[in-house]
Amino acid sequence: MKSRKLSRKRSRTAIVTAAAASVVAGVALVPNWSAGAAVVDDPTVDAATKATFQRLADAVFTDRTDALVDGGHKKRTTTGFSGDVRLSSAQSREEGSALTELRGRQSRLARLGEKYSGASTRVTLDATRVTGRTAKADVTEITTLTYAKVKGTEPKTTGFQAHHELTFRADRQGTWQLTDVRDTDNGYIAVNQVAKQPTVAVKASPADDSPPAATRAATRWPAPANPKNFSASGYDYKAMVAYAGKYWNNYNPDYPDYNGQGAGGDCTNFVSQALKAGGWKHVPGYTYDFHKWFGNSEIQSDSFVGVNEFSWFALSSKRATSLANVYQLDLGDVLQMDFNKDGSKDHSMIVTYRSSQGVPYVSYHSTNTYNRSVASLVASYPNAAFYAYRT
Length: 391
Hints:
The protein is of the alpha+beta class. The protein has 2 domains: about 45-185, Roll (Nuclear Transport Factor 2, Chain: A); about 235-390, endopeptidase domain like (from Nostoc punctiforme) (endopeptidase fold (from Nostoc punctiforme)). It has helices spanning about 10-25, 45-65, 90-110, 235-245, 265-275, 300-305, 305-315, 375-380; strands at about 85, 115-130, 135-145, 155-170, 175-185, 320-325, 335-340, 345-355, 360-365, 370-375, 385-390. Strands 1, 2, 3, 4, 5, 6, 7, 8, 9, 10 and 11 form an 11-stranded mixed beta sheet that branches. It is globular, with a radius of gyration of 26 Å. The protein starts with 7 loop residues before the first helix and ends with a strand. Residues about 1-40 and about 200-210 have low confidence and may be disordered.
């Protein structure tokens, strides 16, 4: 049955009449959801409330980071929140599940010979949007983890920057409850984030002929020896590492930033920039031809910014060869991942450190990360396919 629309005049008359009748009957016109409970007006989000939003966000991500630290996770910092801002009961269960998963990740890392001896997490509040009884807070997390010297030659720290959106809803009494935490980086999870299936890049089509297929790399450690000859190619691998160290978190303004611009993010763009800094030369031509490779502030080839196209160019041009095992990677080499094993690669990273025990460490954009161990990636994504390239 279709509803009938009242004229503006009839509609107003009907409302006034109903209101008058309710007053005579002594009935208050209140929303059904609040019947039987004291209800405050839509609460405001003042400076003090925003500061508490920030502190609760900091506590959430500090807890997650602490779950990875050897001897950590003894006391949850979020349990101290009550009153005007707190975790909802559902979100508290979500955080409990997240911490359980992260502790499992810590155990898997320990079996691979990796531990963290300490950590620091800092969260800043970037923006707050309020609509009625819902508030959304955009925050930036900066986390640093200190490697424990299990093998003796690990780098000092690993770090990343991540962006999140937190949703708060006010209950009947005006208490703000955190009900959802969403990662907003257009890319892949950081080491302290819960492993959810990332949004993957759209599988690209070859330009004019069949592209070369990369060989999937094994993830067993230790790997068979395959030392890199740093002088054979003529490339400056130290320059690649220095570039990645400089721009992993502060993007180079001489190139476009694709983080947040759709599937794929800025990961391959960043890797290409580092390789270019180390001596990879442009191969000009049509942007869609995977045999070409070029990028600057004005234009970039698909192979410069696309995950699959980069692989096709690197292999077809002989600038890279496939490695049999991810633990054979060395400085300036490239690691790619296919998260759901659908044949389309989703993420690119560049090696910026290698320990004497044979563990490579990678840096990447989306989520901006520096010196994350390959062991951590293998432990976090046991079902992913890995592709390792010697450059």
